[in-house]
Records
---
Amino acid sequence: MLPRQTKLEPRTRRALWQSRSDTSPVNIPTDSIMFLTGPADLKGPRALHPVFFGSFDWHSCVHSYWLLATLSRLYPIFPRGNAIRALFSDSLTKERIAGERAYLKRPSAGGFERPYGWAWLLMLQAELLRHETPEGRRWASVLRPMAGDFRARFKAHLPKLTYPNRAGTHGNTAFALALAQEYAATANDKRFAEWIRAAARGWYAKDSDCQAWEPSGEDFLSPALIEAACMQRVLGLAAFRAWLARFLPRLTKGEPASLFAPVEVSDRSDGRIVHLDGLNLSRAWCWREIAEGLSRDDPIRRLATRTVERHLAAAFPSSPAIIWASIGWRALPSSHCGLSVVSLADPAVGSPRFTGASKGLKSRRRTSRHSPTLIGAPARRQEAVR
């Protein structure tokens, strides 16, 4: 059987909150990518992005909001819940979102945050759509036009993308499709879901005998496993099993060996090498997704479950240090564990989560199943008090 659902202990929730909400009055350091057409374009993060500023980069702000929104929904009596709700009510206003959308309308912004930031904005909207409170519904309503902007960008971009991006970092196409597919399912956007399925099948359906020459030195995604996780979402059970047998035909022999061994992180003070903590976590999610697409008596399912545990054992002992490092480094890209920890504990948007070696987590039973959500994506600090 798959391991049980997990629950976040209070100290882990506090660490996640603090890693997302430490403040920086000058909003630096930051990594701002701009196409300048004149002196008037040179502005600070707060002026350019009235909502999503304060982290090292724009997409980190977006998925930090996702993290806070998820914490707020899962733990409505969380001591920091009032602060989270105040932040969202202050930030997610029509005027501020209009400022974000104005930046997107710049002629030079067509490729802004493609596809990683696009997918995370849709993932944030999917999370807000799960909120059943009046304020949650209000936030989702305010963000809806911007989600529509990125939906439209996906629609325009996918037919032009002849080849998928197979990197182990932000540009990976399969990762973006997986998140976009979750948004489509949550929003009940059947047309968008079909675009995603068609694109994934067109790019990946004929892939075979993957050699998995990975990881690279700064990966937080496994190109092979994220592709498999994506295809698990767009194919039926029988079709996915047949595809997986072609794509990774030697899994029962433990090959490719690179996919089964957790990666080592040599220097967690290095903002890029520490990506590898995120790689262990995202691999755990991918192996779980693969397992969920197989019958219970499939030997690959059992093998996948054991591999998940090994990767979690490698990743989670370091998680508190990584989370707290993001506080010490202010806005540097230090934490790649926060979203993984929260998603492990989310009963509303996923199949049973894995427990095991993770400190700060304790198991609890759950009996119902829901559509799977993503874990293992990188996370960094979000400014929460302005």
---
Amino acid sequence: MSRAWSVAGAMKVAHNTQVFTGGACNVLNEEGKLLRNQERDRINDWLTGKGVLFFDPQIHPDTHGAEYDYAIHHVIEVAAREAAKINLYEVSPYTFGGISSFEIAVDCFRWKEPMVIYYSDGDPENDVIPAHSDKGHPLFVPRGIDTEHTVAIDAHYQEFRKNGNNMRKYLMGFAREMDTLTTTFSDTPARGDIVITPDRMHATDLFEAIIRAASNERVFVTFTGGKSARDEIGNPRFMIPDNPPKIEMNALLDQYVDEGNALRRKIAEMVGVNVYVRIVYTQESAILALGEVLKIRGVIQ
């Protein structure tokens, strides 16, 4: 269904963006197929109804009038993100959320911008509390990962690899921006370094490094593994086997789920109590929280 959103879709209006609505984008279904995430549709409809100009990086013809084109949309996203002073981040139970967690940390600790962190339930048609642990922490429950569906398992395994590599690349880029974050490559790390090995994801360790550096704390991150653990331009690599046997594959995917759950707990532990940050668990509460923050900032009446 086509939706006429008040979305910043061109550079000439990107600098007027008021709200950035990001986080989870495409999700894998039980068959390993990528589907457009619709959990923010109701929220974005509400923002449109309020006349708020926003940017959602999940580019799709139904909502933006175009397919994603990196050359066009990346520069718009950068400009819109810089202009927006209020952010909504969705953490879905079906996507890992590695880069989203870093963006939350940077906005919260470096830029100190108002935000709503929305833990969705993964079902746009219902609006319930998401899957969670006995202690109330939202869970990472990717669909099809614990079945015998080979295509779904392979798709999740590739997402595991992609997320591990993208988080490393993000940290390297962030280190170039921050004089508080230093990265080194060595198999003999110094005491106090955050050590990242090539054969483990280290999601929460990387997240901790981003938080501490964004909080103006001096941080040293050491990547081990030698030259073979770097890509063609020198970025550290997350190295997992290409075609592991079934038992090893299951163990690695179990690590993936465990890392996703630990990352969600870290996000919850990170956020301090203040009038500008809201943590919510339903579409309705996300809209209410956005309304409060938008009123505090004088964007809506």
